[in-house]
UniProtKB/TrEMBL annotation:
Species this chain originates from: Neospora caninum (strain Liverpool)
A Gene Ontology term for the protein's cellular component: membrane
Principal place of residence: membrane
Subcellular localization(s) per the UniProt record: Membrane
Entry protein name: Transmembrane protein 234
Keyword check for Transmembrane: yes
UniProt KW keywords: Membrane, Transmembrane, Transmembrane helix
Membrane topology (UniProt): Multi-pass membrane protein
Length: 140
């Protein structure tokens, strides 16, 4: 159970910052491809401009074919698969909070590494308390 929870926590926690970073890197492509307000066809008040849905879908497709988004997304989905397996095998009241706790912890670590910033004393205390709570739940 602990290895499964660690796998879910690592897969979820490390991929969320990577997906966000990849999405921000490719955000310019979506903005550049979107219709500018002056280019929108005339429409009556209360109606959505034509092409809004199409532009949104194209932006989503462009985002998902970027490797910086796609690879972390697929790894994140592997974590979700492991999570649902764990939910079927172990007690829900323990599995769900522990998986999310570890995901939070690994997200914190990944963001600290990506930002090349040392965590503050409060952040270290918070992570220590998270790990202490995890240890209590697993040992009991």
């Amino acid at each position: 159970m602990i290895l499964g929870l660690l796998a879910v926590g690592i897969l979820w926690g490390t991929t969320v910052p990577l997906m966000r970073d990849g999405g921000l890197a490719s955000e310019g492509a979506c903005k550049a491809s979107a219709l500018e307000p002056k280019e929108l066809p005339p429409h009556s008040p209360g109606k959505k401009p034509a092409g809004g849905l199409v532009a949104s879908v194209l932006c989503l497709v462009r985002l998902l074919i970027q490797w910086r988004v796609l690879v972390p997304y697929l790894l994140n989905q592997c974590g979700s698969f492991c999570y649902y397996f764990l939910l079927g095998e172990y007690d829900l009241s323990i599995t769900a909070p522990l998986a999310n706790t570890l995901a939070f912890f690994f997200t914190f670590l990944t963001e600290a590494i990506m930002n090349k910033a040392l965590p503050s004393a409060q952040e270290i205390l918070g992570c220590t308390l998270i790990l202490f709570g995890f240890a209590i739940c697993v040992s009991g």
